[in-house]
Amino acid sequence: MKVTVTFKLDKELLEELKKQAKRNKRSLNNYVELILSKVVEKQPNDDTVEALDEALNNKDLKPITDIDKFLNSTK
């Protein structure tokens, strides 16, 4: 389901988006939606953020000695 959204953009940014959309043979709406989807997809979820924090700060890390056993334990 799609919804209509209204927001303001810098005029030069809008012109560049229109050019890029045309170059990519897309409508402006489709091109902006594609760009926003890519940005949102790149954001890690909460579990990933927590795991990264643990890894970066060496919090309660235990070495994995048997990868098959580890993978089976997460199911």
Automatic annotation (TrEMBL):
<dbReference type="InterPro" id="IPR045944">
    <property type="entry name" value="DUF6364"/>
</dbReference>
<dbReference type="Pfam" id="PF19891">
    <property type="entry name" value="DUF6364"/>
</dbReference>
<dbReference type="GO" id="GO:0006355">
    <property type="term" value="P:regulation of DNA-templated transcription"/>
</dbReference>
<protein>
    <submittedName>
        <fullName>TraY domain-containing protein</fullName>
    </submittedName>
</protein>
<dbReference type="InterPro" id="IPR010985">
    <property type="entry name" value="Ribbon_hlx_hlx"/>
</dbReference>
<dbReference type="InterPro" id="IPR013321">
    <property type="entry name" value="Arc_rbn_hlx_hlx"/>
</dbReference>
